[in-house]
Design brief:
The complex is a heterodimer of chains A (194) and B (527).
Chain A: H1 17-30, H2 38-54, H3 56-73, H4 82-92, H5 96-109, H6 113-119, H7 168-171
Helix pairs in contact in A: 1-2, 2-3, 2-5, 3-4, 3-5
Chain B: E1 16-20, H1 24-35, E2 40-43, H2 58-65, E3 72-74, H3 79-82, H4 115-119, H5 134-148, H6 163-175, E4 180-181, H7 220-226, E5 230-233, E6 237-243, E7 249-255, E8 261-271, H8 274-284, E9 311-316, E10 332-333, E11 349-353, H9 358-364, H10 372-379, E12 384-391, E13 400-408, E14 414-419, H11 424-442, E15 448-452, E16 487-489, H12 504-523
Parallel strand pairs in B: 1-2, 1-8, 2-5, 3-14, 8-16
Antiparallel strand pairs in B: 4-10, 6-7, 7-8, 9-12, 9-15, 10-11, 11-12, 13-14
Classes of the chains: A mainly alpha (194), B alpha/beta (527).
Chain lengths: 194, 527
């Protein structure tokens, strides 16, 4: 890969299209969803590039990271198949570069209408009257359960027998004990020797 | 000139009753006091968002509602690694965290006020009996449930079963649980108290645009405002409670939205900033007379921070569930909320339905994860069912909120640091709860399950705890600080121990009770 930045000055950096394509591939390999089309991956990569433009350190990390990927790939990261690409990403997992890509992807890839549709999520609902008439209870592969507690029955608050074993605090009247750092008020255990 | 947004404006030099925070505790207190004819000033750090402002989008809503001021974390909890600057997921707005709460309203059980006596000595746990019992709180639980419209009690009908509940309840039945139902939840199944029935839109955590869910914003604030006695000042961040030569609180210093400092004179101050900001404010208010922070002669301010057990179990099926349709939480299994030490831990836990959209699912299901194992969790989204586990965690002195003087907020104030380590009892209970949750889903044919670690804390408790003796805690049985007679704490910070129950109902019940006490004390001029 040629240097990912178009211009040698890091401060005026704009990533090359090749760098952008590599980044899209990174996001796709790290967060693979067969059901998700290219659009959200491209938008996420562009978001990463925008964030990198705003923060010098991200920019440095991103530049270094993209170069490292090609070095680890022994050529062009984009030429690797999914499995090999995933292996390379596992090797950079602990880097600033990958952490930045991962965090930004988690926050943005899944905040995307197209991804929601692909995963089967319907997004905002209030403006459509909620789900009261649109399937909030349309699950039909299980019987309808009861929604109230069993009549005339009370949950035992303490298991039968739980209080049969006296605890030191109970013996000493509980609150009588030093409460900030309660001690073993009734322990009479001696050292055991054989 | 104050920044009151109501018709009522109280002079800054007038010694007022000042309530800091407008959530479950502060908002309830403001409503109760004004309805008894007592004027109050409410300082709220966040803006006044209305129901129309809420958005059905997880991240957009998060950025609109959440408390995002910098905080730091330490300790062995995963939050310190995954979300180091977001120990808690709370709301910074009028109405506080009631505006995004799920709505579950179980009560404490009788023994949960007496854990030191009932559980005995638990090594490393700072257990203490509450100075009050269920008999003290029962009438206020009734009032709180009626105010909030809790389902299943006082004649309020249960919510209908949504898809997530159908999976949850069928699984519960199959594994032999008996005490499951769609509530109690403070969300209307039918119109009640001027609020409509739920339209099952599924965005509880994003504020409820339909106003079916109880919150301080939908009920207490407008009613308090109508009395003409509420001076509500949003975007007013309290930074110090000051005191006079006698050691009585005499004013609150606060910053307005532009960072200008104001002083509101006070005859009585009630802190309700939730369990991180409340101890922070006490610690920020240290003086030569109160060198370790205001009301901190016990050294317990900020300590015993509790966040409930929590954890999430997801079940993955071969058929659609669509858990996101309908109320986010509308299902409870109570069978494990009992105290049964034979399970290998003290205390109990509830299982409650939960749903996240893909955006939050990706962020929280397995923080830090990526690759095909991670994406397969999201590929199963349509066929996923979810439950949250919420149980009692042990109070520990070393779990605490302190001031981090190495990190400053935008006003130059030290940020709160939240330190948390799980107690062995917490770990044992969480393991049990994860396994129990998995069994529920496996019983109805789950192809797979996944355990999600606790989210940033939504239940924050214990940092100014209630105690009989001044040396054991920060406030007495009325929430009045042991050290400063006209300073009260009115939020979940006062919880001596956390119980298994979601805390909001108890915070509201305590605040109603405290309001009666304060009104009585004012009337008889004992304050």
């Amino acid at each position: 890969m040629v240097f990912p930045a178009k211009y040698p000055s890091l401060n005026a950096m704009e990533m090359t299209e090749e760098a952008r394509q590599t980044l899209i591939r990174v996001v796709r390999v790290a967060f693979p969803h067969e059901c998700v089309p290219d659009g959200p991956y491209e938008r996420t990569a562009d978001k990463i590039l925008t964030e990198a433009q705003n923060e010098t350190w991200f920019r440095v990390a991103l530049t270094q990271g993209l170069l490292s990927l090609n070095q680890l790939a022994g050529g062009d990261f984009q030429d690797l198949d999914d499995e090999a690409a995933l292996r390379v990403l596992r090797r950079v997992e602990g880097t600033e570069f990958f952490g930045f890509v991962r965090r930004t992807t988690v926050l943005n890839l899944y905040d995307d209408d197209e991804v929601w549709a692909a995963l089967g999520y319907e997004g905002a609902s209030f403006d459509q009257g909620g789900y009261i008439n649109r399937g909030f209870n349309d699950l039909d592969w299980l019987p309808d359960p009861r929604i109230d507690y069993p009549e005339g029955e009370q949950l035992p608050e303490i298991a039968p027998g739980a209080l049969d074993v006296p605890s030191p605090a109970v013996e000493s009247g509980g609150g009588e004990d030093s409460t900030n750092q309660p001690g073993a008020t009734s322990s009479d255990m001696e050292e055991v020797k054989k | 000139m104050t920044a009151s947004v109501t018709g009522c404006s109280i002079d800054q030099d007038e010694e007022a009753i000042v309530i800091i925070g407008s959530g479950a505790g502060g908002g309830t207190l403001a409503h109760e006091l004004t309805s008894k004819g007592i004027p109050v000033v409410v300082l709220e750090a966040g803006p006044y968002l209305a129901h129309d402002d809420y958005v059905n989008n997880e991240w957009e809503s998060f950025n609109q509602m959440a408390w995002l001021d910098p905080r730091t974390t330490s300790g062995s909890w995963r939050i310190a690694r995954d979300f180091p600057n977001l120990p808690a997921w709370l709301v910074k707005a009028v109405g506080g965290t009631t505006t995004h709460w799920s709505g579950a309203t179980p009560r404490f059980k009788a023994h949960e006020f007496k854990t030191r006596s009932v559980y005995g000595r638990v090594e490393g746990a700072n257990l203490l009996d509450w100075p009050i019992g269920i008999e003290d709180l029962a009438p206020y639980y009734d009032r709180a449930e009626k105010a909030m419209g809790s389902t299943h009690v006082h004649g309020r009908p249960p919510l209908p079963a949504n898809n997530n509940y159908k999976v949850f309840a069928n699984g519960a039945e199959k594994v032999g649980y008996k005490f499951y139902a769609t509530g109690p939840y403070a969300t209307n199944a039918e119109e009640y108290d001027g609020r409509p029935a739920s339209i099952q839109d599924g965005f509880n955590f994003q504020g409820d645009k339909n106003k079916s869910k109880w919150s301080i914003l939908v009920r207490e604030m407008p009613r308090a405002e109508k009395t003409g006695l509420l001076d509500l000042r949003p975007r007013s961040q309290a930074v110090q409670v000051t005191h006079d030569a006698e050691g009585r609180a005499d004013a609150v210093l606060y910053l307005d939205k532009d960072g200008n400092l104001h002083r509101q004179a006070a005859k009585l101050v009630c802190l309700a900033g939730n369990s991180i900001e409340t101890p922070r404010l006490l610690l920020l208010s240290g003086t030569p007379r109160f060198p370790d922070g205001l009301a901190n002669s016990s050294g317990q301010v900020g300590r015993n921070y509790m966040r409930h057990l929590t954890g999430t179990v997801w079940g993955y099926f071969d058929k659609p569930v669509r858990m996101y349709r309908g109320e986010t939480m509308a299902g409870v299994i109570s069978d494990e909320s009992t105290h049964d030490p034979d399970r290998g831990f003290a205390g109990g836990y509830y299982m409650e339905t939960i749903s996240l959209g893909p955006a939050f699912m990706a962020a929280f299901v397995e923080p830090g994860a990526w690759g095909p194992d991670f994406t397969s969790l999201l590929d199963s989204y349509t066929n996923s069912a979810g439950m949250w586990i919420v149980g009692e965690d042990m109070p520990q002195e070393t779990n605490r909120v302190t001031l981090n003087t190495n990190a400053k907020d935008e006003n130059g104030l030290p940020v709160p640091n939240v330190h948390y380590d799980d107690h062995p009892n917490d770990i044992a209970m969480r393991e049990h709860a994860y396994a129990a949750g998995e069994k529920v889903y496996q019983a109805v044919g789950a192809q797979g399950t996944h355990r999600t670690a606790p989210y940033p804390s939504t239940h924050n408790l214990g940092t100014a705890r209630m105690s009989e003796r001044p040396e054991d805690g920060v406030v007495d049985k009325w929430g009045r600080t042991h050290d400063v007679p006209n300073l009260f704490i009115s939020d979940g910070s006062v919880f001596t121990t956390g119980a298994a129950a979601n805390p909001t109902l108890t915070i509201v019940a305590l605040a109603i009770r405290q309001a009666e006490y304060i009104a009585d004390q004012l009337k008889t001029q004992q304050i």
